[in-house]
Specification:
Blueprint (H helix, E strand, L loop, with lengths): L1 H14 L3 H11 L4 E2 H8 L3 H13 L3 E6 L2 E6 L1 H12 L2
Antiparallel strand pairs: 1-3, 2-3
Helix pairs in contact: 2-4
Length: 91
């Protein structure tokens, strides 16, 4: 059980290890949710690059998605962020 939790936390920390992903998280944290196209406009990078970083954030559990028709809406998974914060503060 503990090993699985450590793997989860390591994956989340690794996802935070890139400035573009930190910027995306900051953008998402400032508003309840954004569509991918909105994030692309705000980050100023190619859609494929932003999608790549969003996938890493989603796979780490730090970001969650909701499909709305042909659009995907992204938001910070605040419970996972709280869990990561508590974990890091334990050091």
């Amino acid at each position: 059980m503990m090993e699985r939790k450590l793997d989860e936390m390591a994956k989340a920390c690794k996802a935070l290890g890139h400035p573009v992903r930190l910027n995306i998280l900051h953008i998402l944290a400032c508003q309840d949710e954004y569509y991918c196209g909105d994030i692309v406009s705000l980050v100023g990078m190619a859609q494929s690059t932003v999608s790549h970083h969003l996938k890493i954030l989603k796979d780490s559990g730090l970001v969650e998605t909701e499909e709305r028709g042909t659009f995907v809406c992204y938001r910070v998974q605040r419970e996972k962020m709280k869990e990561l914060s508590v974990f890091l503060l334990s050091f």
